Here is the input.
Amino acid sequence: MASKVINIINVPSDIGSIYAGKSRAPAAFQTKGLQQKLRAAGYQVTESNALSDASAGWVTSSREPNGARNEVRTVRACTQVSETIASALDNQKPPIFQLILSGECLYCPAILSAYWRHLDGTSKRVGLIYVDADCDLYTPTEPNSSGNIAGMTLTHLTLRDGALDSMKALCRPDGSGVVDSSNIVLFGLNIDSPANKRDHLGYLLDNNFRVVTSHSVQRAPVENAQAALHWLEELVDYIVVHLDVDVIDPGEFPLCNVPSWTGLGFEETMAAVKIFLKSEKSIALSVAEVNPDHDPGLKMTERLVDEIVDGLSS
Here is the structure.
């Protein structure tokens, strides 16, 4: 990352969640001084909102007609996010670093599709480092699926069989998924979690996805981050880093919306993320699943803000 300008895009959203709270994350980041601290670190900061506070709030929903909860509202919100990012890329010359406070991981297809569209007509490629406890490979109709689209993020990133037709517009210009095994690293995957079903892990193995487990990251965060980054840098021109805070073990840092017992510490996680942000190819950071309702006094949020600013500044 080289730019000294950062554009913050706020995405207050609970639309794909089991319960509410994450929509308050952008305000919590501001309360703990994110913008002020970035300016103190020497950045020019611009800011925009992709969604209104009310447009992507939590509501009860059935799974009709296609097996996904809040499908119409979620797709509309994803489209708005993609359009907001695309507008920022088109209007900022040269394109500057985007810090996306995205509430939910389900916006990753929207983010990546905006970059692919921006690169249309060039030979450039964009890739994703997906720092997340879950592989998010559910489909709307499979057994044990909650129906929440946040659990289907990699399904919609890849557009594998079972993806919602309504999400297929969030794609590369040729209509294919925004990621495949050649432009994503799944980093911090909790292979002990029952949420990551055996057939989902099998899909990753069968299709040669690059995976670094949470246990491996805990043992050697910097070394594993360097190896993952080197692999991806050889294959793409630009990198989006996605941090879902559920990758951090809730016994130490219970800030996420739904806990995953990863065994991965906060310091180890952020040491790895800082490696990714140092890359000259890193052009965006998406931070998701922060629920301020789990953080009375916002002490954990403040720690996260400080580490993000440090990572962007080092």
